Amino acid sequence: MYALVDCNNFYTSCEKVFSPALEKKPIVVLSNNDGCVISRSEEAKQIGIRMGAPAHMIEDLIKTNQVNVFSSNYTLYGDMSDRVMKTLSAFVPRMEIYSIDEAFLDMHGLPQGDLLKLAFTIRRTIGQNTGIPVCVGVAPTKTLAKMANRYAKKMHREAGVFWAANQRLVEEMLRYTDVRDVWGIGHQHSRILKANGFNTAFDLTRAPDDWVRQHLAVVGLRLVNELRGIQALGLEEEQPAKKNICTSRSFGKIITDKNLVKEAISNYAASCAAKLSGQQELAKQLRVFVQTNPFRAQDLQYFRSIIVQLPLATASALDIIRYALKGFEIVYRDGFNYHKGGVELSDFVPADAVQLNLFAGENKKQQKAMAAVEGLNKSLGKETVKVGIQGFAKSYKMRAGMLSPKYTTKLADVITIKH
Q: Can you give the pTM of this predicted structure?
């Protein structure tokens, strides 16, 4: 048996934890640059706010219904996610963190009769420890557990738990679930399935193996077997190393000043380097790009990127910034209204298996200096020490005009209790 634990409306739930007055109020969280809706409370859903709706197109709806609007506070959400996952890890010996607000738990070896009780205990404990409401789905395979979680939300929301404990309950859930809502079935495949008479997940379990293999390939056959209760997917306890790392942002305003774009690229390069160093790998290649806003028809449009081969694989912020800026000088052109830029690292090699270059040896002093900088930033806070070219003002930063405090990670934002 597996369990899938999913936080309900996670971003808006995080905002509610620290502002009890928001309970039962419509809330939305917006994407980068306060662009589109990426999280909605149940109350916001009920008044018709759609996921992905551009904020500027629902201003009247927001005003009329007094919707509470927040900018994305990823620092807060990441920390709250960490607290939820640490709570979950105390219940089972093995788990897979699937996303910021979801985790699969391995229930094998646990007493079968206790699974329902355990699911309710998990839900209650997370609520007590973090204030975040969750739903728990328990079933024989990961795909069915994912479905059971959705079924709990749709049909047993008050309880927040569904255990597909026997074939009758599994079949009930399969018959209820539209084939397009099956985990792993995309829009294109759902059209093919419906055109061939497979309308529900239960219908799909009856599909001939040869037909499934022909139309959905081997991956699709694994999925169908999971729906049949045959385990085909195991837990991924170790997060696979990323094959590339990219930091790109839309600027908070249109930028025509080359130095400001250059500063942004420097910070994006430093961010990539920090992520890479945590992966214990080095990069042999980077890409830099800048672009205008394609939605501003009145502007001259420009997009250009360049790939830079690094002479020696590195994770040093100094090296990555230096070569990113060399690429920037090539792609940048005066006379454009810049809207976005980014840096991407790729072609990784293990840090302990670097092929040295005859003409570009290792700089031991630089390595020690960067190790010291990383140590200071880990102990004293992100970007306490950084390269001068990164600047301090960050006037290019994304808009976040409705950002809530960093309640759990910044001392000045910790809630104080008044007597």
A: 0.81
